[in-house]
């Protein structure tokens, strides 16, 4: 797992915002009853960056008061552009920091948590001296354009007023987020030159890097509403409308349905453990190693037969039939004890409990599984899920019960997470507005899930889901 403990954040918040129409520091203009910088700071906190520096300038005391004590501050004495603001912030960065994440406090309110985490991870993997966030805008007016060479590599960011007519038709724009190698940044930021308006542009650092033959990493936003700049009154009004829709969706009650086997629990490893315990029990009872190994095979064959007949896993019935076949009915209680006292929590997939906790932060969690009503509830308790979930439903035939479950939570935003494509497809058939998350691991991983349709996601680990949750439920 990638960690961000060597990354500091610098938020540029010293601008006036005079084009919006009021005499306020730009970052204090309201979006849904909060200063717009509130959303930038909340995002950085949720990402988990340890050092946060806000560069303030115009009416600095008001900005500092509105923010409170959530960060450190750097003061920009003169409005000399974003490059100068970054230099002011850089002087406050802790010596052991290796990378610097930079964003504008007036246009970073709409980035999703997963977007910034993925952006940071991309930078750490590629180890470039500069990474930039880009987005394609239907109307790119007012944004700096991304210039690339014939091989698709970023060459520079050109501000709109300096772009040619051809350049202005380019719809890939600068989303206002950067990541720098701190050492490279400290060695180069003072080389920035003033532009015609007497300011230093942070975007010129991109051209500086490419002129050295350095590759600039670019990370593209897939949702243009995340890259939303606010420079005029109309944009502020639209920003409030976008945030209103996001709040309304986030406040809508959410229910997460999640399976157990091969979703949270590595049932393959659990089965190996149970096989070993069954073998040892029979070997010690019958004192016949050859028969013990054979009996283990007979048990799982009986398990599959019972499952095929009833349509679901039934451990008590499997044991009853097995001891009759083995002519050792006195083993019934001991066999059942193996299943009821198994250390289920030792076979959880990595991050299983962490995922459930994250789901709980966003809504309510309900286990939705197929099986018998003896073994499955014991499994839930053994996995340490009992206090982490809202409820559970165990059915002999899950597909036939899904319409009832959907109806129970009518009016809720419903998200189902499971490894079985068949269950996901059936759920989506019953509730066309549901979101389906396929956990591609374990026994059923070879089956294909159609991702071309909307509201469908697929991940190969629970950690990936945890990182991308905000994107899933947006």
Automatic annotation (TrEMBL):
<dbReference type="GO" id="GO:0019134">
    <property type="term" value="F:glucosamine-1-phosphate N-acetyltransferase activity"/>
</dbReference>
<keyword id="KW-0808">Transferase</keyword>
<keyword id="KW-0012">Acyltransferase</keyword>
<comment type="function">
    <text>Catalyzes the last two sequential reactions in the de novo biosynthetic pathway for UDP-N-acetylglucosamine (UDP-GlcNAc). The C-terminal domain catalyzes the transfer of acetyl group from acetyl coenzyme A to glucosamine-1-phosphate (GlcN-1-P) to produce N-acetylglucosamine-1-phosphate (GlcNAc-1-P), which is converted into UDP-GlcNAc by the transfer of uridine 5-monophosphate (from uridine 5-triphosphate), a reaction catalyzed by the N-terminal domain.</text>
</comment>
<dbReference type="GO" id="GO:0003977">
    <property type="term" value="F:UDP-N-acetylglucosamine diphosphorylase activity"/>
</dbReference>
<dbReference type="InterPro" id="IPR050065">
    <property type="entry name" value="GlmU-like"/>
</dbReference>
<dbReference type="InterPro" id="IPR029044">
    <property type="entry name" value="Nucleotide-diphossugar_trans"/>
</dbReference>
<dbReference type="InterPro" id="IPR023214">
    <property type="entry name" value="HAD_sf"/>
</dbReference>
<dbReference type="Pfam" id="PF00483">
    <property type="entry name" value="NTP_transferase"/>
</dbReference>
<protein>
    <recommendedName>
        <fullName>Nucleotidyl transferase domain-containing protein</fullName>
    </recommendedName>
</protein>
<keyword id="KW-0548">Nucleotidyltransferase</keyword>
<dbReference type="InterPro" id="IPR005835">
    <property type="entry name" value="NTP_transferase_dom"/>
</dbReference>
<feature type="domain" description="Nucleotidyl transferase">
    <location>
        <begin position="9"/>
        <end position="271"/>
    </location>
</feature>
């Amino acid at each position: 797992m990638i960690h961000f403990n060597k990354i500091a954040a610098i938020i540029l918040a010293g601008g006036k915002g005079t084009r919006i129409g009021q005499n306020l520091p730009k970052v204090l203009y309201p979006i849904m009853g909060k200063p717009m910088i509130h959303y930038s700071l909340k995002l950085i906190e949720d990402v988990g960056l340890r050092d946060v520096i806000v560069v303030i300038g115009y009416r600095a005391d008001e900005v500092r008061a509105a923010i409170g004590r959530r960060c450190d501050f750097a003061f920009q004495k003169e409005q000399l552009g974003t490059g100068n603001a970054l230099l002011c912030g850089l002087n406050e960065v802790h010596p052991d920091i290796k990378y610097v994440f930079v964003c504008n406090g007036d246009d970073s309110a709409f980035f999703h948590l997963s977007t910034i985490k993925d952006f940071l991870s991309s930078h750490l993997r590629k180890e470039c001296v500069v990474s930039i966030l880009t987005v394609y805008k239907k109307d790119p007016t007012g944004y700096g354009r991304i210039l690339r060479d014939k091989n698709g590599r970023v060459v520079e960011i050109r501000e709109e007023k300096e772009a040619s007519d051809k350049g202005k038709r380019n719809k890939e724009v600068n989303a206002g987020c950067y990541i720098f190698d701190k050492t490279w940044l400290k060695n180069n930021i003072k080389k920035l030159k003033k532009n015609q308006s007497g300011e230093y542009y942070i975007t010129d650092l991109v051209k500086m890097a490419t002129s050295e033959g350095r590759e600039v990493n670019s990370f593209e936003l897939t949702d243009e509403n995340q890259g939303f700049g606010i420079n005029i009154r109309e944009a502020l009004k639209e920003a409030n409308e976008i945030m209103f829709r996001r709040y309304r969706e986030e406040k809508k009650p959410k229910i997460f349905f999640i399976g157990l086997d091969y979703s949270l629990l590595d049932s393959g490893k659990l089965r190996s453990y149970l096989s070993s315990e069954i073998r040892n029990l029979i070997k010690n009872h019958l004192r016949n190693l050859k028969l013990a190994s054979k009996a283990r095979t007979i048990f799982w064959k009986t398990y599959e037969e019972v499952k095929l007949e009833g349509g679901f896993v039934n451990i008590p019935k499997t044991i009853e039939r097995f001891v009759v076949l083995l002519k050792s009915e006195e083993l019934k209680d001991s066999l059942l004890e193996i299943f009821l006292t198994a250390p289920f929590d030792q076979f959880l997939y990595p991050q299983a409990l962490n995922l459930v906790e994250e789901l709980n932060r966003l809504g309510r969690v309900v286990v939705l599984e197929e099986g018998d009503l003896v073994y499955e509830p014991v499994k839930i308790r053994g996995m340490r899920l009992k206090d982490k979930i809202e409820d559970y439903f165990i059915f002999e035939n899950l597909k036939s019960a899904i319409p009832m479950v959907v109806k129970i939570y009518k009016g809720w935003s419903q998200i189902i997470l499971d490894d079985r494509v068949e269950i996901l497809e059936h759920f989506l058939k019953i509730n066309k507005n549901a979101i389906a998350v396929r956990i591609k691991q374990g026994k059923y991983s070879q089956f294909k899930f159609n991702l071309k349709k909307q509201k469908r996601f697929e991940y190969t680990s629970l950690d990936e889901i945890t990182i991308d949750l905000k994107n899933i439920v947006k």
